[in-house]
Amino acid sequence: MNPWLSMSIRNAIRRKLRTIVTAAGVAIGTAALCSLIAFERSYQAGIQGELDRLGAQILVAPKGCPYDAASMALHGASWPCYLKQDYLARVKASAGVASAAPVLMNAVYDENSGAQWVYQGVDPEILALKRGWRIKGALPAANDECLLGATSATRLKLNIGDKFPLPGLQAGQTGTVCGVLNTTGDADDTFIFTSIGRAQAIFKRPRQLTHILVRLKDPNMLDNVVADLRGCDAGMDMNVVPLAHVFHTIQDLINSTRILLGCVALIAMLAAGAGVSNAVLMAVSERTSEIGMMRAVGASKTDVFLLIWLETMSLCVLGAAIGIAVSASTAPALERWLRSRLPISPESAFVHLDAAAALLCLALAAVLGTVACLLPAIRAVKLSPVEALRTGANSG
């Protein structure tokens, strides 16, 4: 090991309690910064990815909160109210609409397995929106046919052609597997798809839908199509949700939150930097005679500066490493807490600390250490060897 580095580490741990408190301050600031970076980068990417996989630019839903409607359409749920199926024709007639896929969604609880199952009634128009779907088999056509998501097929241990009791429904309700959806990486993997007519019969919702997914001929026509649908006769009963606007609204909220949390993390880092600088400054004052002796036996000002810089860096890097470890270990708990409070949460992990974020935090800790060492290092460099030895002797 480099002798200067070895000496700086020994000096840093000479006062163990001071070192622990100082490193803890850096760890707290680094953990806050890491968690902020991990959340901000992963959440926006997750939401954008889910909206892209939904395949629609517009969601037509019953009246209510647009964020709740978007979340239910993405992740599956029982809807509190419904649309008339007659509205589908009006949506398709709007200029600029390339395709409109009707959906009837309902979630049920299976008391036998203790699991929730989400059913979606769809028609062939769904393929115009779900262009990333790869199906082994076919979409449901006959009344008893079902398309299973990849996860559902695995959980039920079913293959194409198998007949099975529909989980969570009354005894006697059965289906035949007509197809299995390849893994998509989103909530579709867990759904059971039937025809619209079968879903309406199962859940006793004749000629009703939960939502309509709309794909446009040209995304630039979004505002015109939204205005047309909101202004039509059925507009009072429909909640026309432009998904791009939902994403941008969420993005604006996240950006505002990021600024607030960024300020908190910055204050924590500045406080940690002040603590590091104060701790090293105290160490320099306690070792005045040692520094004078080093200068007297030939150590240059650069050597003294390097020693103080290495001591400060060892404190900051140690604290940053602990903070990164804390951030990584608490990420699942933080994600669970955020899921209970955010209007829309992606299925994938959205508090994810990757190597790039960890390296960025380490680099910022190194910058913090360099800045924090300036005052104590300059004071140590300016010490006169004779005065330093005399001061040390007098204090002894």
How far is the first residue's CA from the last residue's CA?
A: 32 Å
Largest sheet: 10 strands, mixed
- Proportion of strand residues: 15-25%
Percent in helix: 55-70%
Summed over residues and divided by their number, the pLDDT gives a mean of: 83
Secondary-structure element series:
HHEHEHEEHEEHEEEHEEHEHHHHH
Helix/strand structural class: alpha+beta
Shape by Cα distribution: elongated
Give the low-pLDDT segments: none
Quantity of strands, as a count: 12
Domain count: the total is 2
Number of helices: 13
Q: How large, in whole angstroms, is the Cα Rg?
A: 31 Å
Would you give an account of this structure?
There is one protein chain. The protein is elongated and about 95 Å long. Strand 3 and strand 4 form a beta hairpin. Helix 2 runs antiparallel to helix 12 and helix 10 packs antiparallel against helix 13. The protein folds into two domains: 195 residues, no CATH class; 173 residues, no CATH class. Helix content is 57%, strand content 16%. Strands 1, 3, 4, 5, 6, 7, 8, 9, 11 and 12 form a ten-stranded mixed sheet that branches. Strands 2-10 form a two-stranded antiparallel sheet. With 396 residues, the protein is α+β, with helices and mostly antiparallel strands.
